[in-house]
Write a structure and sequence with these properties.
This protein has 679 residues and is α+β, with helices and mostly antiparallel strands. Among the domains are: 4-105 and 107-143, Glutathione S-transferase Yfyf (Class Pi), Chain A, domain 2 (Up-down Bundle), CATH 1.20.1050; 181-245, no CATH class; 257-313 and 543-607, no CATH class. It has 28 helices and 9 strands. The strands form 3 sheets. Strands 3-4-5-9-6 form a 5-stranded mixed β-sheet. It has a two-stranded antiparallel ribbon with strand order 1-2. Strands 7-8 form a two-stranded antiparallel ribbon. Helix 7 packs antiparallel against helix 11 and helix 16 crosses helix 17.
Length: 679
């Protein structure tokens, strides 16, 4: 039987032929990919010629193409369209790939050649992009243990393999727990307060699961969030909240507490092997915020401004509840519910008023039109491009007549898809033998699907999410670099959120909204006063949200800014978390709930010691967007400068230099503090 992963992809734009790929194809393709990559490395190290940038650094950059291609398909499918079988393969493949990566990084002959080139770097006449590739290659070897002795190299390798297994298991436990839980309601009175479309979807899900005449609510965002915001039955909100926050924290085989401790210990040990005091110190060496002290200072400085305001917001909420005659204390499962009622009172606005103007298809069109106005892009649907699920839509992306990228969009929740929203790539943009290789970019979301009698209508937060992920996608689509490893979103982690977060700003502007925000029944444009209310309410409970984000950033640092000795002493996951949250918690603690065991960003994603970067990037995005506000939100000169200095350059230049080229100076926090209503 032929293995489609081992053939050239004979499809439009060489997009993976998803329908032909079966689970059993992955491991043989990975093994073959490793075999070919080994041969390519052997050619580099076996060369009789003196090491040069071309025969060593560029040759290494272009090696392992098959392996990269297969891995991209496997890991993207495991996030967006997984199964028990695919999870088993991913579990098998992860340690194999980690071991091979270590084998390359600890190949002494290869390291000797890289070091030779690096030591002569000042005499080689390299351009900035070549210099960046050389610097990144050299550092990646040092940071992967190339300078260690044999005993330490062996231990480094063991740690890497073990971590790849543990983080994968952590994510699988979380997905299982999210999918497993169902709140089954059989009394219609228990649905009081819930919007009609939410109730309909719950009934449809119950019917699908063999509970006709009942309603099912789950821990997936489109079900969980509206329930917490609108359900009048407080005991059911409490039940659902506790189910959500106790995921992977029940002391059973899906419990993540031991995994958290092991991951933290191994990361601390890895850092110690490489002579870093903590894992956070190791990570932050390659960030705009260069060390843990700078991150803590940044977060605490924001906290100082946000916490008093957040306390005011909580006090206001308590007074509001008292005014409604509520006699119980404000608990976490009350916040979303009463927050929504107070928002409606203060701004005469709620999601049900806004959603009719944000039909999903119109929002997609609006995102495309915004990209066209700013960057001259157009999007053409192509049904011939393979997709991995019937819900996924494929587009060709053009700048004028030049094709720039392939774009896959996947919007709705399903069992095999992890929760949340993200952008990813199946292939990076690069140049090969003078030819531009097109990027294959995808965004994956979990929006409310349409029902039998209503289209998919987005909450404003979901509109923001779509703009956000599309901002990441633009970073990938507009990449214009020579090397794939420096292309698109391959930038410092605390810079990667700038394109996504700045793009959110357009969906608050009437000039942008008038392109697409029309009532799905009357076709009426969104009224100016409603846009004003959206803007005014955008800062609603912003201090509370800021404190929440900061608490997650500080929790991340608490886990990753530990010496090995401190990491080994941790016995109680809940205690570490309580110590962080105690100083800034605005509510009573809820027993038997825990954030760390479900903090996938830092324990199963790439955000370890990097969660602060969301707030860091907000400083950048508010400061950068203030230039658009000054010049005009569709000002061509500003847009082209952003495209040429930020989006197209990827990681070819240090991000602070790119930012200064665009903005004319370093970022200042004033625009963010003003936007958030904190000054």
């Amino acid at each position: 039987m032929t293995n489609p992963l081992l053939q050239a992809f004979n499809t439009p734009f060489e997009v993976p032929p998803f329908a032909e790929i079966q689970t059993q194809h992955y491991m043989p393709a990975i093994e073959e990919g490793i075999k070919i990559a080994r041969q390519e490395i052997d050619e580099i190290t076996g060369s009789q010629e003196a090491p040069t940038f071309q025969n060593t650094i560029e040759a290494l950059e272009s090696s392992g193409e098959l392996l990269s291609r297969v891995s991209a398909v496997l890991f993207n499918q495991n996030s967006a369209e997984t199964s028990d079988e695919l999870q088993a393969v991913t579990k098998e493949a992860s340690p194999v790939l980690s071991a091979f990566n270590n084998e390359i990084k600890q190949n002494e002959a290869l390291w000797a050649r890289i070091k030779t080139v690096y030591e002569k770097r000042g005499t080689l006449g390299l351009n900035p992009e070549q210099m960046m590739l050389l610097d990144k290659t050299y550092k990646s070897f040092v940071r992967s243990g190339a300078n260690l002795n044999d005993e330490k190299k062996k231990r480094f390798k063991e740690i890497s393999i073990e971590l790849s297994k543990l983080t994968l298991t952590y994510g699988e436990n979380l997905l299982f727990e999210t999918n497993e839980y169902e709140l089954i309601i059989d009394k219609k009175s228990d649905l009081s307060g819930l919007p009609a479309d939410v109730v309909k979807r719950a009934a449809a899900l119950a019917k699908e699961k063999g509970h006709e005449g009942k309603w099912i609510f789950t821990l997936q965002a489109p079900s969980y969030i509206p329930f917490m915001e609108y359900a009048d039955q407080r005991h059911l909100r409490e039940k659902l909240y506790k189910a959500f926050m106790s995921k992977a924290f029940k002391g059973d085989e899906r419990d993540n507490q031991e995994l958290v401790k092991k991951i933290v210990r191994l990361r601390s040990e890895m850092a110690k092997l490489l002579d870093y005091p903590t894992y956070a110190s190791y990570v932050l060496e390659e960030r705009m915020a260069t060390n843990p002290l700078q991150v803590r200072h940044f977060l605490n400085d924001l906290l100082e401004k946000a916490l008093p305001k957040a306390e005011e917001e909580v006090a206001e909420m308590k007074a509001f509840m008292k005014g409604l005659g509520v006699d119980h204390e404000l608990e976490r499962w009350d916040w979303g519910y009463y927050s929504e009622k107070l928002r409606k009172k203060k701004y005469a606005i709620d999601d049900e008023l806004i959603k009719p103007y944000f039909k999903l298809e119109n929002v997609i069109s609006g995102v495309f039109q915004t990209a066209e106005k700013l960057f001259g892009l157009s999007f053409v649907r192509n049904k011939e491009i393979p997709v991995y699920h019937a819900d996924v839509i494929a587009y060709e992306v053009y700048a004028g007549k030049e094709i720039k990228a392939v774009f896959l969009a996947d919007f709705f929740p399903r069992k095999g898809k992890r929760s949340g929203a993200w952008m990813t790539s199946y292939r990076e943009q690069k140049r090969k033998s003078g030819k531009n290789i097109l990027p294959q970019v995808s965004i994956v979301c979990n929006f409310t699907p349409s029902s039998e009698d209503a289209p998919s209508l987005l909450k404003f937060d979901e509109v923001k999410t779509l703009f956000h992920e599309f901002g990441h996608a633009l970073h990938g689509m507009l990449a214009d670099t020579t090397y794939g490893s420096l292309s698109g979103t391959n930038v410092y982690w605390d810079f990667v959120e700038l394109p996504s977060q700045i793009f959110e700003n357009w969906c608050f502007e009437k000039e942008c909204l008038d392109q697409f925000a029309r009532h799905y029944e009357t076709d009426e444009l969104i009224p100016t006063d409603l846009v004003e209310k959206i803007k005014q309410s955008a800062n609603y409970h912003e201090a509370y949200a800021t404190v929440r984000q900061i608490s997650f950033g500080l929790l991340d640092m608490a886990w990753h800014d530990l010496s090995l000795e401190m990491a080994e002493e941790i016995k109680d996951v809940a205690k570490v978390e309580q110590d962080v949250f105690m100083q800034l918690d605005l509510f009573n603690p809820v027993p038997e709930t825990n954030m760390s065991v479900q903090f996938g960003h830092i324990f199963a994603g790439g955000y370890a010691a990097g969660y602060y970067s969301y707030k860091w990037a907000e400083v950048l995005d508010a400061d950068a967007f203030s230039l658009f506000q000054e010049k005009g939100i569709f000002d061509q000169k500003t847009a082209h400068s952003f495209r040429d200095n930020i989006l197209s350059k990827g990681g070819t230049v240090h991000p602070m230099e790119l930012y200064k080229q665009f903005r004319g100076r370093e970022p200042k926090p004033e625009a963010l503090l003003k936007r958030a209503g904190l000054v």
